[in-house]
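> example.struct
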């Protein structure tokens, strides 16, 4: 059985619709360990040893986060800064995560169309993710899939719709599960 580690970069799951629902849909998935950074590190003091150990024990790593300013929230940036150290994730002996199967699970408030040249979000999302995934690529992790869902805004005052977000979250979780299951055939 594969050991699957999901790093949740949501800054406050108690106020989340999408990420919380996705995690609820994944609960009970065999072999899955969820490390919710907001719960583990409300003070941003990352336990580097524990995080590196969890990463090394995993066969598959999932990075799940809500898109904030076209990247991950600050708690996940702090996590990468603290955990992806010299001779762990890069450097002459920094091959500890090399080749590890990795999946991105990302929720976005904006429309997909807004992520294009000349539109509100300027570039296609992949261009932002190329930059955001610098540590993952430097560590030579193997990103094998990205599960991305747009229009996950539950805030009515901003034109959002909570019912729609819950439905999109369930289908996002189903796609993520399918992606994990397809790994057995890789
Ligand atoms: C500070 C902040 C910045 C955000 N920036 C973006 C963004 O750049 N692009 C986007 O599509 N959505 C953006 N959003 C919307 C979130 O991605 C969306 O609310 C989130 O994915 C919903 O997940 P949740 O219900 O788990 O919080 C932003 C939201 C916040 C609070």
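> example.seq
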């Amino acid at each position: 059985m594969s050991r699957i580690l999901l790093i949740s970069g949501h800054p406050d799951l108690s106020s989340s619709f999408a990420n919380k629902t996705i995690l609820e849909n994944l609960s009970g998935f065999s072999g899955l360990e969820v490390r919710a950074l907001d719960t583990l590190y409300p003070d941003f003091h990352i336990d580097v040893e524990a995080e590196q150990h969890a990463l090394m024990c995993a066969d598959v790593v999932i990075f799940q986060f809500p898109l904030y300013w076209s990247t991950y929230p600050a708690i996940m940036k702090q996590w990468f800064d603290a955990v992806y150290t010299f001779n762990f994730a890069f450097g002459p002996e920094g091959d500890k995560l090399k080749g590890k199967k990795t999946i991105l699970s990302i929720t976005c408030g904006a429309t997909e169309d807004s992520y294009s040249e000349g539109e509100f979000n300027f570039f296609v999302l992949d261009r932002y993710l190329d930059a955001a995934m610098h540590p993952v690529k430097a560590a030579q992790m193997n990103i094998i899939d990205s599960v991305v869902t747009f229009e996950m805004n539950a805030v009515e005052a901003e034109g959002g719709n909570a019912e729609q977000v819950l439905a999109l979250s369930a289908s996002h979780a189903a796609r993520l599960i399918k992606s994990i299951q397809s790994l057995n055939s890789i």
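> remarks
The chain has a mean pLDDT of 97.
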